[in-house]
Amino acid sequence: MRNTAKITTAVLAAGALTLGLGACGSDKDSGSGSAAADTSGPLVVAASPVPHAEILTFVKDNLAKDAGLDLEVKEFTDYVTPNTATEDGSVGANYFQNQPYLDDFNKKNGTHVVPVVTVHLEPLGLYSNKVKSADALKSGATIAVPNDSVNEARALKLLDANGIITLKDGVGNDATPADITKNPKNLKFKELEAAQTPRSLDDVDAAVINGNYAIEADLKPSKDALVLESATDNPYGNFLAVKEGNEDDPRVKKLAKLLTSPEVKKFIEDKYAGSVIASF
C-alpha cells in the first residue's frame, strides 16, 4: 500500500520466533520501549495489511495532520511479529488482534501488550470453492482451520454454532478437534497458519478464514461465507494495543480518538460493506 512499509512473513519468520528481534526494519536500538519512549517522533504502528493498515492509512491521509499526529504504518503479514515488535519497542503500537488472542499470546510469550481502544470486528467465516452451502459438505470432507490455539477454537465454535459439529459443553478458547463430541459428517480438519487458509481453498473442501485474510483474498465475508460469525456480543473485536505503561503516550491517545471518530466509522461502512463492522 502507499505510504506503508510492507514486510512479508518469509522475511519475518526467523525474527518472529524470539522476543527482542522485532523484525520491522527499525534503525533504532531494539531495547525495551525504545520507540515509545521518544514521544516527539512519529508513532509507528504495526498492522495487518487488510483492513487494519487501510484504516490507519485513511487516518494518516485524512485526519492525523489536523490532530497534530505524525503517524507511520508498517504492515505485517503474520500474527506474531506485531506483538514482539511492540514488546521490544521497535514499534510504538499495533492494530491487528482481539482480546482472547492477546491474552493467549501474553501468557505463552511473557509479553506485556495491552489494549487501548476497540475499533472493529471482522467476522470469521467458512468458505468453499467446491460447495455452495454448509449442508452440501460431503461425508469425510476436509476443513482447513487456523493453527493458533485461539483462532482454531474460534473456528470450531463457529462450526458448532451452525450445527456442523458439536463441541464439549463449556469448552473455551482452548478448544481443539479433540473436544468435538458429535461430527455427523465425519469431517477432517487441516491445521494451517491463519494466513494460509485462503490459499488452501482449492486443496480442501472448505476453510475457516479470518476476516482480514478473507478480504485480502478478494472474498466478501458478508456475501461469500457459507456461515459467518454473529456480531452480537462478539468478544473478538480488534483493537489498538501498546506495551503496558505506554497507554498515556499522547500520540497513542490521539490515534485512539481518531480511530473511533465518525469519519473512520463512515470509512469502514463505505469501504467494507458489512464485511468489517465498526465497534463504536
Write the topology of this structure:
Elements: E1 4-7, H1 9-16, H2 34-37, E2 43-47, H3 49-62, H4 64-67, E3 71-76, H5 81-88, E4 93-97, H6 99-109, E5 113-121, E6 125-127, E7 142-146, H7 149-161, E8 166-167, E9 180-182, E10 188-192, E11 206-209, H8 211-216, H9 221-224, E12 227-228, E13 238-243, H10 250-259, H11 262-272, E14 277-278
Parallel strand pairs: 1-3, 2-3, 2-4, 7-10, 7-11
Antiparallel strand pairs: 4-13, 5-13, 5-14, 6-11, 6-12, 8-9
Fill in the keyword field for this structure.
single chain; 280 residues; 7-stranded mixed sheet; 5-stranded mixed sheet; 14 strands
SSE ordering: EHHEHHEHEHEEEHEEEEHHEEHHE
Indicate the low-confidence ranges by residue numbers.
1-36
Major sheet, described briefly? Answer: 7 strands, mixed
Number of helices: 11
Which strand order does the major sheet show? Answer: 1-3-2-4-13-5-14
Q: Tally of extended strands?
A: 14
Arithmetic mean pLDDT: 88
Instruction: Output the structural class.
Output: alpha/beta
Shape designation? globular
Structure description:
The chain has 280 residues and is an alpha/beta fold. The chain is built from 11 helices and 14 strands. The chain has helices at 9-16, 34-37, 49-62, 64-67, 81-88, 99-109, 149-161, 211-216, 221-224, 250-259, 262-272, and strands at residues 4-7, 43-47, 71-76, 93-97, 113-121, 125-127, 142-146, 166-167, 180-182, 188-192, 206-209, 227-228, 238-243, 277-278. The strands form 3 sheets. Strands 1-3-2-4-13-5-14 form a 7-stranded mixed beta sheet, with helices on both faces. The radius of gyration is 19 Å and the shape is globular. InterPro entries: Lipoprotein_NlpA. Belongs to the nlpA lipoprotein family. Keywords: Lipoprotein, Membrane, Palmitate, Signal.
